[in-house]
Every structure is written in structure tokens, then in C-alpha cells.
Amino acid sequence: MASVHESLYFNPMLTNGVVHANVFGVRDWVTPHKMALLVLLSELGRAGAQLGLLERRRLNRLLLPLLQGPDMALSRLRKAIEECCPHLAGSVHIRLKLMAEGELKDMEQFFDDLSDSFSGTDPEVHKTSVVGLFLRHMILAYNKLSFSQVYKLYTALQQYFQKDEKKDGADENEMELTNPEELDGKMEKEELDGPLREEEIACSGPLSQKQAEYFLSQQASLLKNDETKALAPASLQKELNNLLKFNPDFAEAHYLSYLNSLRVQDVFSSTHSLLHYFDRLILTGAESKSNGDEGYGRSLRYAALNLAALHCRFGHYQQAELALQEAIRIAQESNDHVCLQHCLSWLYILEQKIFDSCVLLEHSVNKSLHFGLPYLASLGIQSLVQQRAFAGKAANKLMDALKDSDLLHWKHSLSELIDISIAQKTAIWRLYGRSTMALQQAQTLLSMNSLEAVNVGVQQNNTESFAVVLCHLAELHAEQGYFAAASEILKHLKERFPPNSQHAQLWMLFDQKIQFERAMNDGRYHVADSLVAGITALNSIEGVYRKAIVLKAQNQMSEAHKLLQKLLIHCQKIKNTEMVIRVLLSIAELYWRSSCHTIALPVLLQALALAREYSLQYLASETLLNLAFSQLILGIPEQALNILHMAIEPVLAHGAVLDKGCAMFLVAKCQVASAASYTPQKKIEALESAILNLNEAKTYFAKVDCKEQLRDVLYFQARLFHTLGKTQERNKCAMLFRQLHQELPAHGVPLINAFK
């Protein structure tokens, strides 16, 4: 189950994906690209009523990203205008050509004419509008230029235009060799409204203030909502370093560098950037301006809090505790209740690493509600539910608690927490073994639309919650034998969360586990053994457990038993009850294979007691199936059948296909063993019923390509058909058994001594 505290990181830079950047002293200046935009605005004003409503609407949508974004090549700018209004694109090109091929006085006259846009009783542009502010900034920047700077600007404009002319000439030569339809198709795929590409960001000089703010806000929003559309970590860091080279005191660039370092789990760079962010925030006085005299202390305590969160994320709990104590001390001195509540939430996380205690968390939830902090209160409720789920509380009580937190989410439009809540429900139902309910919750989340407004073309829900739900969905499909569907889901996960993203480890683990199960079902133990290393790197407990399973399948009983005993002690120490039960079941199976049937019974009873105590219904049903198998081995098949009738329903309703097959196979074995004391007629009916159950088991095993179990079922069926005198059916089963037996290695273990 994923942690619900990832969102507790205080982010002073992001509010709904928008960066609140400080003015950092880099003024706007006139560039050839901005002159092209000025020409576009001038021609747009001249066109007036000649433009249709649809064309004007398209141009208005295009203007904002052009005004805010970095400079781009003239060819791409023309292409963008042509898609909105081809006639206007031609006018802009002609006007720029006349200016670039004319004289310097033509550019002077152009800037003089721009002021006329504001004159008259009904001006073309309002001074306070977005376009009006841009025009005024450019006119002011141009008027401040010296003569030599004006001449350099004119020369740059000529080079800007000539570069476009040369590119057009090269494109014309290429068009003679290219199918026009293919060229049109490529142009249609150009995403002008999408996020900036790496080649568009690179520039020879620093970005202006507005461009830097737009760049940072866009990249921060993409890191939050759709990391795949953001620049690659190396490219983004390169641009941030370029930006900081011209202004080292730009605090928000340091914070984005911190977020970027977290993407690649770089603890040194992330710590360095975080400290620089708060240092620059204090040095520039930005916090004091926005928060009065108290701003300096606020920066210090939130710096300590963020540092504690960073250390906790990387597992440095002692350093995190020291930083958190510092944040608490400063917050108490300043009487900052909001910061103290954040500190209390992180204190619970750190204490949770040492011992389980709900006292801090309950206190945090009550205080958060008292101070009107619904986000923190909801996170506290989510954590309480998670803790009580592991403690074995009833599912109905947990769902009632989550319902109360959902009311907070919808009331305050907390979209991210709505997603976390549904993902939490999915994980809880999976923990309790209710796969149908887990599937329903997963589909609910995938069908939802985000409440947050994001840019066109940006995935709305590339969050940890969606990664968790999609991973569960892939595993559920794999358990039911739909491996193609599971592969498609994992493929989608790989595209949505690339390997360098922060949530990629989730799908990596599930992918390895699904491959491991398929290899084990197929009897390819060497392949399964090679996957253990990958699983261990992502989850050490799962890796050790899978290694023991491989050793058990390879009949290395003593090595498997030693490994399982060590794992059992470790899991009992960290209170991982689910894994404790699974380990106990594996140990019981080792005792069966070693013919120590009576020793297996206390182990199974211990596992059953734990499963019932912690409300793990599916594991309890699986334990009962193992108990039934033990009773079959000990010669009391009637009692085994009674237990099976009680335990088989949850397995058939919510279990994996392999477990369903094993359950039906066990039912058939018990029926055959019980039939020994029946009358001849009743015995024949019991054997025929067992054959039907074996057919059902065979269908389940074939669905997951479990060849070893298929071989055992075919052997059993052949014996039953021989007893009933059905020679043709016996020969068919015997032939199929022989084919599988030649394909698979024989381990010399009697058929009756293996439940799975």
C-alpha cells in the first residue's frame, strides 16, 4: 500500500502548479522574435473587422503562449500563425521583410507608430491589458537603447529574417523530393500549444523576467501533473544552471532544481538546492516583503521542515529528527500553529519507524481541524485508516472513516486527496482479499476527471495514486490469466511513468512479480531465480520470500527452510502480518514435503489465528485449504471435505485462477479418498463428480499455463477413468500426461504431498 504522506512536503513555490516568482532584476528587452510579435499585433489591429470570429479566437488563444514563452525561430512562428490565419501570416512576413531589407529608419518609424495603438477615444489596445502591457514594455525598452544597441538590434533582425529565408530555400528543395501529403501530415502533428521542447528553451543569453517566470511555472506544473511532458532531468538542470548563471539569487530556480533532483533521487544536489533556495529567499528579502518582519523566521522554520522531509524521504531518520526538532523550536518561538501541525505530521512518520502509536496522529487530526487545515486533517485520517487496516480492524469501520475524509475532500475540492482515498480503498480491499471490490475502486479512479485545471495535452493524473491503482489492476488481470491485458497495462505504466520518474519503482516491482509468477507456473525455475535479484532490489522482503519459493520448487528444502525462518523472525519484528502468514504457509508445505505432517498442523493453526485476528479473509481461506490438505494426508478426508465446503467460496469468488485450480483439485482428491468407504454405486457417482471437478481445475491451470499442475491433474484423471473402465478417455489423458511429462522434469515427489 502506497504511503499517503508523500504530499506532506511543504512546497512554497507551487499553488495549483503556478510559480510565485520574485522579481529578480532581469528587465525585458527587445529581441527580433519580440519584434515579430509586435508586427503580428500591429497587423492584427489593422485587419480589424476583416478577420472572422473563428480566426480571431484562434489568434487570441495563440497570443498568450507566444508573449510569455521564450524566443522561437521565425519559421515556427509563421507556421503557428498560418494555422490560425494564413492571410495574416503573409502580411507579417511581408512587413518583416520590408523592415529587414530596408533601412534603420524603417524600424525607428515602426516603433513610433506603435504608440498610436493607445491613442484616440476608442484605442485598439487597452493599456492595462496583456497585449497593452507587452507593447508598453517593448516601447519603453526600445526607447532606453543607445544608438549602438539600436544598430545591433537592427542587425540581429536582419540575421533573424535571413536565417528563415535560407531555411525556406532548403525546404523548397526538400519538397521536390517529398510527397506533399506526407509533409502536410507532419505539419498537422506539430503541437504548438504543448509544452516547450528542449531545442526551444536553449538560448544564447538570459531569459527575461516574464520568460523565466513562464518557464518555471510551466515546468513546475508539468512536474506535478505530467512528468513525462517536462524536460528531461539533465536538460532541465542545464537550463536552470544557465538561468542561475545570470542571476544566482533567483530563489525559485533553486527550488525547481531541488524538485528536479528529487526526480533522480540525488540526495546531495537536492539538499544543496533546497538550502540555496531558503538562503536566497532570506537574502533577497522576499519573505520579509510578503510576511512583514516575521518573514525571516518563517523561512528558517520552513527550511528546517523541508530539510526534515527530505531526509525522511531518503531514509535518513536521525538527521530528519534533528531538523524536525529545530523546525518545532523555531515554530514554537514564533507561535506558528500551521507549521507546528506540519511538524506534528512528520513527527508521527518518524515515530512510526520506531513504534506504532496512534496518539500523535489523532492529536494531529484534531488540531488540524481546529485550525482549519483540511488537507493535513485528511492526510491524518488516511494514515489512521492505513495503520488500522494493518492492525486488522473491520473493513466497514475503515470505509466509514474514509467516507468522512471524502466529505472533506469534496467540500474543499482537494482533488489529489480524492485520488489518494480511492487508491487507499483499492489497497485495503486487496489486503483483505476482496479482489472484486478492489477492481471496482480501481475502475472508479481511472474513470474520474481531475478537478485541477491543467494545460491542453497534459495528462491530468500522473500521480502516485494512479500508479498504485494501475499496478493493482495489472496484477489482478495477471492473477486471472489475462496476461496480454496485464502487459498492456504495464506498457501504459512505462509510458506514463518513465524509468527515471519518481513513481517508476511501483510498476517495476509489479512487473517483476508478474514475470516471476509466470515463470514459476511454467516450470522455468532458472528464469524465476534470475528475477529474484530485481525484486530484492525493489523490495528486500519480497525478494527473500521469492528466493525461498524457488529453492522449495527446486527441492532444496534445508536452504529454503533456513531462509524462511530468518524471514519469519524479521517480519514478526517489523509486524508485517501478511508476509508472516505467507511464510508460515510455505514452512508448512516444506514439512509436508519432508513427510512431517503432524509438525505442519501447529504452524497452520498459528497462521489461521493470525489471519482471523487481522481480518485477512482470503489468507484465512487459503490457510483452511492447507488444513484440509493436512487432514487428507492424515487419513480423514471426510473432515477435509467439511472444511473445504466452508473455505472454498471466498477462493472461487475472489481468488487467483491458480488458487481456484488448486482448490478444485483438492476437492477432487478428497472426494476420491472419501469414496473408498462408499457402496459401489455411490462410489461411481463420487468418482464421476471428482472427474468433473478435475476438468474445472484443468481449465483453471490451462488459463495460467501451469504445466506441472496440468500434468498432475491428467495423471489423476487417467487413474479415475481406468477405475471406471473408460479406456478411451484414459488413453487420451495418458497421452497428454506423457507429452507434459517428457517436457517437464520429474522431481520424484509423490503426487499426494503437494497442495500447490
Describe the structure.
The chain has 756 residues and is an all-alpha fold. Strand 1 and strand 2 form a beta hairpin. The N terminus is likely disordered. One of its GO terms (cellular component) is spindle. It is found in: Cytoplasm, Cytoskeleton, Spindle; Nucleus.
Q: Please compute the radius of gyration using only Cα atoms.
A: 34 Å
Uncertain residue ranges: 1-26, 180-205, 287-293, 453-459, 748-753
Q: How many β-strand stretches?
A: 2
Task: Name the CATH architecture of the domain at 209-284 and 292-421.
Answer: Alpha Horseshoe
Number of helices: 36
Shape: elongated
What is the mean predicted local confidence, pLDDT? 80
What kind of sheet is the major sheet?
2 strands, antiparallel
Helix content: over 70%
CATH superfamily of the domain at 209-284 and 292-421: Tetratricopeptide repeat domain
Distance between the amino and carboxyl termini: 27 Å
SS strand fraction: under 5%
List the helices and strands and how they pair.
Layout: E1 14-15, E2 18-19, H1 32-47, H2 53-68, H3 74-84, H4 86-101, H5 104-114, H6 130-143, H7 147-175, H8 180-188, H9 198-201, H10 209-225, H11 233-246, H12 251-263, H13 267-283, H14 286-291, H15 295-313, H16 317-334, H17 337-352, H18 359-370, H19 374-390, H20 395-412, H21 415-431, H22 435-447, H23 464-479, H24 483-496, H25 504-521, H26 525-538, H27 540-553, H28 557-574, H29 577-593, H30 597-613, H31 617-633, H32 637-654, H33 657-674, H34 680-703, H35 707-724, H36 727-743
Antiparallel strand pairs: 1-2
Helix pairs in contact: 1-4, 3-4, 4-7, 10-12, 11-12, 12-13, 13-15, 15-16, 15-17, 16-17, 17-18, 18-19, 19-20, 19-21, 20-21, 21-22, 21-23, 22-23, 23-24, 23-25, 25-26, 26-27, 27-28, 27-29, 28-29, 29-30, 29-31, 30-31, 31-32, 31-33, 32-33, 33-34, 34-35, 35-36
